[in-house]
Amino acid sequence: MIDEEAVRIGRLERLRAAGIDPYPTRAIRTHTIAQYLAIFDSLLPAEGEEGTKEVTLVGRLKTIRKHGGLTFAHLEDGSGAVQIALRKDRLKEEGYAFFHDTVDMGDFVEVTGTSFLTKKGERSLDTREYKMLSKSLLPMPEKWHGLTDVEIRYRRRYLDLISNEQVRSIFKTRAAIIRSMRNYLEGHAFMEVETPVLQAIPGGASARPFVTHHNALDVDMYLRIAPELYLKRCIVGGYERVFEFARCFRNEGIDHLHNPEFTQIEGYAAYMDYEELMVFLEKMLEQVVRDCGLDVAKVPYQGHELNFTAPYPRVTFRDAIKQYANVDIEEYTDRASMAKLALKHGVPVAPTDSHSTIIDTFYKHLVRPKIIQPVYLIDYPAEISPLAKRKVDNPKLVEMFQLVYGGGVENIKAFTELNDPLDQEERFKEQDKARAEGDEEAQFSDPDFVRALKHGMPPTAGFGIGIDRLTATLTNSHSLKEVILFPTLRPEAPEIPQAPQANV
To answer: Given Cys at both, which of 80, 191, 388, 389 links 415, Cβ 3.0 to 4.6 Å?
Structure first.
């Protein structure tokens, strides 16, 4: 079996022996390939004439096909691909042979030449000279026929990006989503801010945090699970509208909808309530879908065609459970009865699960998977969300909503923010009790946040949107691993060297 790396290193040595640096510092480029193709016709020589209008392109060689004294190759840069031709009579026999002795698919090169059309009408560059820009020492995946091994695709994303154009398009869509959201929010007077990733108290969500240690201070610290409490401190401080694209970390399981490291956008608007926020966000989502080049009313996702045209239906959390599970949770007001109900329906219940956790698990198993078209679930039990404001007409509920669609995707969580410091203090105590009883996802008390609220926070509405999940939706990707460039994976097992075979 040929050791292709060794072959390529041999070609690298031939370059160096000829006094050629296989990794030069600088490159020259007169046009990107897309720019070149856009003006191609204007560069063609008149009939009977030889081309004189030269261009210099750079990129990676995707294919090399030798036909005697003529070689065709495809060159690709970040904007597109084009065919180049190398002729023995133009490069001279020595230069032509040297090309095939030193150049491989995957190499980055700089080529200079003139334009021509092949007999089949393919736009091409007649190469006058070439220069090595970066010698590739390992072969490209499956000779450019596409990298299909999922495990390798995620572990070696660089190969995935090289060989799969569809994968590159996913991350272009992700960038378009972020750009669209930023433009929309800034156009509505929101200011982008940054808040701590290392936190002394991990707050803002119900999740198990990652723990680290700060040596100089000799204290344990946590990677943030959400930026919420710091963003609301900004509202206390006088900013009326703030948002952050936040990298967050939750020490939880990994599946097609969860990754321990993820990106969300959170935003807060003073003098707004959750009903106004619902209207604001559904209009933003419409804009985002359009900016990604999709039909708002026909977004393909996992066998469904989702309609993101506003307004979205509003259904209470209680009514959704009634509709899809035929259960009225108002009849199960204590942990014991709710646990019995859940087990009856095959919903798992851990000994440490609180009443609210069991309700939430019940909903996730029996209701969420049945919701296909975008819907706002509203008015959740207060115990499920310790940071949301209670409804005036029913203090057992909070002014909270989630956007649910696609058979179980939750992609917006928002509420009218709790700004009563005494109520907040009591709800933190309830979370402390749940944590003491073994609920590792119960929220931590944050005395300084309560202190901030005691200085006064105006009526405020806030939201969080998962960028990974939204990207998966708008690119019709089943797993978040497809839309996170470098997803969290189990460490790769080290290769075990084979023992040498004894001579017989």
So the answer is: 388
Give the Cβ contact number of residue 86 at 10 Å: 26
| Cα–Cα dist 387/274, whole Å | 13
What does the alpha-carbon distance between residue 371 and residue 474 come to, in Å, rounded to a whole number? Answer: 17
Q: How far apart are CA 367 and CA 360, in angstroms?
A: 10
The C-alpha atoms of residue 200 and residue 192 are separated, in whole angstroms, by 23
Q: Give CA 73 to chain center in angstroms.
A: 34
C-alpha 208/C-alpha 123 separation (Å) is 57
Helix, strand, coil tally for the chain in percent (to 5): 35, 25, 40
Distance CA 253, CA 28 (A): 48
**pLDDT of the residue at 147:** 66
The correct CATH number of 161-313+373-482 out of 3.30.420.40, 3.40.930.10, 3.30.930.10, 2.160.10.10 is: 3.30.930.10
Domains of the chain: which residue ranges? 4-139, 161-313+373-482
Q: Average pLDDT, whole number, for the chain?
A: 93
What is the rounded distance in angstroms from the CA atom of residue 260 to the CA atom of residue 250?
5
C-alpha separations of 268 from 285, 309, 384, 458 in Å: 17, 23, 20, 11
Return the pLDDT at 144.
44
User: Is the pTM higher than 0.70?
Assistant: yes
> Which residues of the chain fall short of a pLDDT of 50?
143-144, 504
pLDDT at 468: 97
CB 257 within 8 A of CB 480: yes
Amino acid at 4: E
Helix 421-436, helix 447-454: angle, nearest 10: 170
Length of the chain equals: 504
Closest CA to 141 of 159, 156, 153: 159
Q: Which residues of 102-140 are buried (b: 16+ CB within 10 A; e: fewer)?
A: bbbbbbbbbbbbbbbeeeeeebbbbbbebbbbebbbeeb
Side chain identity, residue 73: A
Q: Let me know the angle formed at the C-alpha of 482 by 259 and 469, rounded to the nearest 5 degrees.
A: 55
> Class assignment of domain 4-139?
mainly beta
Query: How many whole angstroms separate alpha carbon 254 and alpha carbon 165?
Result: 26
pLDDT tens profile 88-121 = 999 988 889 999 999 999 999 999 999 999 999 9
